[in-house]
TrEMBL record:
Organism listed in the record: Anaerofilum hominis
Ligand binding (S-adenosyl-L-methionine): C106, A107, A108, P109, G110, G111, K112, E130, D175
One Pfam family here: Methyltr_RsmB-F
Protein name according to UniProt: NOL1/NOP2/sun family putative RNA methylase
Any one GO molecular function term: RNA binding
Keyword presence, Chaperone: no
Length: 455
């Protein structure tokens, strides 16, 4: 373990390093259930591997056996997200309710985003943002896998988002980039990169992120700040500095029963009520997390941007015909066109101010593809079937032990005797696995190459 880290822990923590870090043991592993797919209790009773309930989140479980969770058909179907157990705590602490406007400011790779989307239950709006382009693409892929239909995915700076959406959100999660001390046991690279310089750089960035989040939150709204590090500069120190500079915010008690309170010895110059924040150490059963819940003083409706509303519009004839035959329940949903692409929008109005970098708004239903002569055909997209596959009129339903499931996830064509011709959804135990094109007793595979099980 890093000497700087141990020395700091011995100096700052009651009882020192040994009181909070077990001398041995493998890193904790877990999954968080996607309640858009099924209730937590149902997963607990029928999980495909050995699990045990986690204390950090109502939908969280420990994995009690090695390997397999990330390759299982249920993972592909978005039934759960593989996630270090204590990482599930911040999103649950935000207390999201259906119908609210929620911002996940530093969202990639998407585990906490999935929790927020599940909490909304398809109502309201989730804006999931990631500044790093490659990570934003991973975020979008995970949102598709989890079937979140009411999300807007952006690739922006926090400052530009705050300018675009002043006072707009009811709840904001800032799971900030950090020095990653909570990843030391599972990611050796985090340990190699650790330094005081990195800690100071992260603390400065975190204060900027919190300032932007504060501007985007409505009066009375709730902000949860979290990190996966133990550094005082990035935790109690950052919260204290924020409260000194933002007198319109108050620190609320997390009321969490897991972990332990913060430490006064970690506050530096920004003394806060440390019993109101929460820390999780390996001794508590998680790799590491810090959380603070902040409320903006006052009360009032969220402000509406004065420009940039994405107006619903009529889809091309080919797209409309496809939906009428394959997804009749979706025909009344708000929709939009983006070039040749057709999008199904969230029911909550979507505002996309000019020049905002947006990867996706709602669900990509598909696109028009040029055909012979002047005709065009509509090609559906994987995202449509992951969000609404259970509503598809033409679908192939497979049990998880059917050998065709594994073949499908390898990208192979599978037998589908009696299946109606045309595009068909594929499900495993009722959960979506994308789509293929049926004909002649078989199903041609359209499962994205980058997502396939190739091992």
């Amino acid at each position: 373990m890093d000497a700087l880290f141990i020395e700091r822990c011995d100096r700052l923590l009651p009882g020192g390093y040994r009181a909070f870090f077990p001398p041995a043991g493998a890193p904790f592993r877990g999954v968080t259930v996607n309640t858009l797919r099924l209730p937590t209790e149902a997963f607990g009773a029928h999980a495909p591997f050995r699990v045990e309930k986690s204390p950090f989140c109502p939908a969280g479980f420990y994995l009690l056996e090695e390997g397999g969770a990330g390759l299982h058909p249920y993972h592909h179907a978005g039934v759960y997200y593989v996630q270090e157990p204590s990482a599930s705590a911040p999103a649950a602490l935000l207390g999201v309710r259906p119908g609210e406007r929620v911002l996940d400011l530093c969202a990639a790779p998407g585990g906490k985003t999935a929790q927020l989307g599940a909490a909304l239950q398809g109502k309201g709006l989730l804006v999931a943002n990631e500044f790093v382009s490659k990570r934003a693409a991973v975020l979008l892929s995970n949102i598709e896998r989890m079937g979140i239909a009411n999300a807007v995915v952006t690739n922006e700076s926090a400052e530009r988002l705050a300018e675009a959406f002043p006072g707009y959100f009811d709840r904001i999660l800032v799971d900030a980039p950090c020095s990653g001390e909570g990843m030391f046991r599972k990611e050796p690279e985090a340990l190699r990169q650790h330094s005081q310089r990195l800690i100071d750089s992260c603390a400065a960035l975190q204060r900027e992120l919190l300032a932007s989040a504060a501007a985007a939150l409505r009066p009375g709204g709730v902000l949860v700040y979290s990190t996966c590090t133990f550094s005082p500069e990035e935790n109690e120190g950052t919260v204290g500095a924020f409260l000194r500079e933002h007198l319109d915010f108050v620190l609320e008690d997390t009321s969490a029963q897991f972990g332990c309170p913060g430490h006064a010895s970690c506050c530096g110059e920004g003394l806060i009520e440390v019993e109101k924040v929460r820390r999780i150490y390996p001794v508590h059963g998680g790799e590491g997390q810090f959380m603070a819940r902040l409320r903006k003083v006052g009360e009032g409706a969220a402000l509406v941007p004065g420009r940039g509303r994405l107006a619903p519009e009529k889809l091309p004839r080919e797209a409309q015909r496809f939906l009428e035959s394959s997804f009749p329940e979706l025909c009344g949903a708000p929709a939009a066109r983006h070039g040749a692409r057709a999008l199904l929008l969230p029911w909550e109005p979507v505002f996309l101010p000019k020049n905002l970098r947006v990867l996706r708004a709602g669900v990509l239903a598909g696109e028009l593809v040029p055909g012979r002569g002047r005709d065009a055909r509509f090609e559906p997209h994987h995202s449509l079937y992951m969000a609404f596959g259970g509503k598809c009129a033409n679908r192939l339903e497979l049990p998880v032990l059917d050998a065709r499931v594994a073949a499908w996830l390898r990208g192979e064509q599978i037998a589908a005797p009696g299946q109606a011709a045309g595009y068909a959804a594929v499900t495993v135990d009722g959960f979506p696995l994308g789509f293929g094109k049926a004909g002649g007793g078989s199903l041609k595979n359209h499962y994205p190459k980058g997502l396939r099980n190739l091992k």
